[in-house]
Write a structure and sequence with these properties.
about 140 residues; Jelly Rolls
């Protein structure tokens, strides 16, 4: 990624006003993570979009909602839009489904198991539940 506007940031950002003490703070809009090797990956607060381009098994664990949501907006590692998107960029999910697990005892759509992305070039969008018990698919 390049610093197109020469502003010192090599990512898409918005300026969010956080009051007179902190002022205007740049926040990353959709930080991207690329997974190019098979295996297990634990998503972090720095992940907004996870692109999977692997012809092999990939398991992704979502972040802990209870730790992720209360992070301050001025934390440079937290995306402006508090969602996680997982995209089969390589078109391999039909043969190698991407397994997505919630963190610990949390749930996805009130289910405590995993969900699969098993359609080539498929995408799943995960939004945190307001009660911090897990995620819902959007």
């Amino acid at each position: 990624m390049a610093d197109l506007d020469q502003g010192g940031f090599n990512f898409q950002k918005v300026n969010a006003y956080l009051g007179p003490s902190l002022g205007w703070v740049p926040s990353r809009v959709k930080p991207e993570r690329f997974i190019t090797v098979s295996g297990t990956y634990n998503a972090t607060p720095d992940d907004g979009i996870i692109f999977v381009n692997v012809s092999g098994s990939v398991i992704i664990t979502l972040p802990d909602v209870t730790a992720w949501m209360p992070e301050p907006a001025y934390n440079p590692a937290t995306a402006f839009e508090r969602t996680v998107w997982i995209k089969d960029l390589g078109g391999h999910a039909g043969a190698f489904p991407i397994q997505v697990f919630p963190f610990g005892s949390q749930a996805i759509d009130t289910l405590h198991g995993s969900i699969s992305i098993n359609v080539n070039n498929g995408i799943a969008r995960f939004y945190p539940l307001a009660d911090l018990t897990g995620w819902f698919l959007g």
